[in-house]
Amino acid sequence: MPEGPEIKRAADRIAKAIVNQPLTEVFFAFEGLKSYEAAFLESQVVSVQPRGKALLTRFTNQLSIYSHNQLYGVWYVKRAGNYPDTNRQLRLAIHTAKKSALLYSASDIYVLNDDEIAGHPFLKKLGPDLLDERTTFDEIYDRYTDAKFRRRGLGGLLLNQEFLCGPGNYLRSEILFVAGVWPWARPIDCTDQQLQQLAEASLAVTRQSYQTNGITNSLDIANDLKAKGETRRMYRHWVFSRWGKGCYRCGDVIRKETIANRRLYYCPTCQPDLSVT
Asked: 237-240 contacts: CB < 8 A, separation 24 or more?
């Protein structure tokens, strides 16, 4: 599933292609939405806003298209009249004279007005968005110390969009590693310094991933490894998908575990077990 940085980059590409452009066609695959096609065709896109792992495509007619990629959805931006070579099913298409924004495989698509957006069951529960430039360190630190979350294991908590908006599987492993925190710890188990490191890492790792097209490793290390011919899979992350490889900080072997039914990677030396005294 794409995570916050990937969704925001998709929003950037879509916005660049179709915002403030006359529309030539709007297509919905679902019968319940087809009645909106004509109304959108007489309008224009004014913004494409990421909301965690969802997108809100806003139009001048005061309506928005809500879409969530879920596990398999993917956006393509193509020249008008061109379609990707894929076996996926087209669910939504927004066409202009020059570009088309095409959403495949997603099934979570709705047309909403502003009141419906405010009351949407997913959107109204989202925590602070790590990629929103208005989100501050203090807001994130407060989430880690909030009584609602502080007794929950970090390995599962960082997948909860109500806690923080944006992280998914690779980001949780990377945030925990950069913060130097054991994945099974709870916020209440952490020192104040560790909580500060978690807040800092949550913002820094997620924003670096957005800015660098998915690189969460030290950029110096990543660039050096790339220059030596290492594969992107090996230089992209500190620990994620590097099971059995040496930690870039200490050399210990990266381990792989399952937490919240998802694979998680960590370094036992850089992220020591807090239960061991």
From this structure: 237/170, 237/173, 237/174, 238/174, 238/177, 238/178, 239/173, 239/174, 239/177, 239/265, 239/266, 239/267, 240/169, 240/170, 240/173, 240/174, 240/216, 240/265
- What value does the mean pLDDT take over residues 233-239? 95
Domain region containing 56: 4-125
Residue with tokens 């992209």: 236
Statement to judge: residues 212 and 108 lie in one domain: no
pTM more than 0.90:
yes
> Catalytic site residues?
2-3, 53, 262
User: In angstroms, rounded to a whole number, what is the distance separating the alpha carbons of residues 131 and 165?
Assistant: 8
Instruction: Read off the pLDDT of residues 95-128 as tens digits, 9 standing for 90 and up.
Output: 999 999 999 999 899 999 999 999 998 899 999 9
Neighbours of 215 (CB within 10 A): 18
Alpha helices (H) along 212-271: 219-227, 232-235
Q: What letter does residue 246 receive in the DSSP assignment?
A: B
In a domain, 67, yes or no: yes
153 and 117 within one domain: no
